[in-house]
Amino acid sequence: MRVTVRRGTTVTFVVDDGTSLRIDSDYAGLTQKQAGDEFSATMTNQGTFLYTDSASAGSSVRKFFDELLGQTETHQGVVKVVNAKSSHRP
Known about the structure:
Elements: E1 2-6, E2 10-14, E3 19-20, E4 23-25, E5 38-42, E6 47-57, H1 60-68, E7 73-82
Parallel strand pairs: 1-7
Antiparallel strand pairs: 2-5, 3-6, 4-6, 6-7
């Protein structure tokens, strides 16, 4: 997925199918410390940032077997952060 947002926007990743997600990125503000079903980050720096979402099953036993069998699911995307446009014209 590729998303463009204005600086200061909060981006939220959500899963609702019983799995969890863990967002990793080259932008520290977009790196999730532990897996969960939701993660939000406020994009304060301008730039283009890659992210990876390692989706995993809720149960640690199922996650173990999925990883063992190579059945983990990974999603990648880009968040582009641009400066907010001025609300007034010169």
